[in-house]
């Protein structure tokens, strides 16, 4: 019995040894180590894009105009899924509140306003439609493969009906309500992506856009129709002052991280 057990163990060990020799081949030539993969290779600009940046023939841009209905469909799908989310509505609410505060402080009527607050907010039913787009200009790095700055021209049209209702409290304690609906906003937008002095983007209208609004106002239950033209003019002036070229604002998110919110390197890095 002992001899049978030892023979079985010896046979199993011999089979495993033969398999090891056939698979590993310890006496054969050693294979070279696996090749090193460069994980951070420099960016290269495809030849097709270089050729595309030479298709402009009217002297107003370095590329031809392109239809962007496919991109508009893609963006509308994203808008459809996110327009009622808390994150997007909170972002719009914050931005709109900042704009309203700026308008009230810069106008003569702002001296009579004690508080201005957004009551209702509707993001509308449509996302801005991109009719066409072209590359106006690019600035390349020293190696001619990295973009330092890209300037795009975008033909944009919006008829989504963005709407908000605002409660205003005057210094006399009177309550007023203002409803504003954006019925149309169309024009040519200059969109810039730049790496200098740090990665950021900007956008502004090339010239005064076509603006259509519906405004209604009342105070203590009484309509104030005579104020509506003044309110529309204030909105137009605010748009002209902050969002028509050469006026623009440097932005980071969501395309780039805010450089002022990035952690600083340790002091040892500067020694």
TrEMBL record:
List, alphabetically, the InterPro entries matched. PDZD8, PDZD8_N, SMP_LBD
- Where in or outside the cell is it found? Membrane
- What keyword terms does UniProt attach to this protein? Lipid transport, Lipid-binding, Membrane, Transport
Q: What is its main location?
A: membrane
- What cellular-component terms does GO give this entry? membrane; mitochondria-associated endoplasmic reticulum membrane contact site; mitochondrion
Share an example GO biological-process annotation for this protein: mitochondrial calcium ion homeostasis
| Signal peptide residues on this chain, from the entry's feature table | none
Domain named SMP-LTD: which ranges?
58-254
Q: Give the CDD domains listed for this entry.
A: SMP_PDZD8
GO molecular function list? lipid binding
* The protein's name in its UniProt record: PDZ domain-containing protein 8
Annotated organism of origin: Trichostrongylus colubriformis (Black scour worm)
């Amino acid at each position: 019995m002992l001899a049978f057990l030892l023979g079985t163990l010896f046979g199993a060990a011999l089979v495993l040894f033969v398999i090891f020799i056939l698979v590993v081949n310890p006496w054969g030539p050693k294979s070279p180590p696996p090749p090193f993969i460069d994980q951070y290779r420099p960016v290269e600009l495809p030849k097709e894009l270089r050729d595309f940046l030479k298709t402009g023939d009217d002297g107003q841009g370095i590329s031809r105009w392109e239809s962007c209905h496919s991109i508009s469909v893609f963006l509308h799908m994203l808008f459809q899924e996110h327009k009622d989310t808390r994150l997007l509505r909170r972002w719009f609410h914050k931005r709109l509140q900042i704009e309203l505060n700026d308008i009230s402080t810069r106008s003569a009527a702002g001296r009579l306003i004690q508080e201005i607050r957004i009551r209702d907010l509707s993001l509308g039913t449509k996302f801005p439609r991109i009719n066409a787009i072209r590359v106006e200009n690019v600035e390349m790095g020293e190696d001619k493969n990295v973009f330092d700055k890209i300037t795009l021209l975008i033909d944009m049209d919006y008829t989504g009906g963005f709407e908000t209702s605002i409660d205003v409290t005057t210094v006399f304690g009177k309550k007023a309500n203002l409803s504003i609906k954006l019925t149309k906003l169309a024009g040519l937008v200059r969109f810039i992506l730049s790496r200098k002095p740090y990665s950021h983007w900007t956008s502004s209208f090339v010239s005064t856009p076509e603006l259509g609004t519906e405004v209604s106002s009342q105070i203590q239950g009484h309509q104030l129709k005579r104020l509506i033209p003044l309110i529309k003019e204030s909105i137009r002036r605010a748009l002209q002052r902050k969002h028509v070229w050469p006026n623009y604002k440097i932005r980071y998110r969501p395309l780039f991280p805010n450089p002022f919110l990035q952690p600083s390197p340790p002091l040892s890095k500067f020694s």
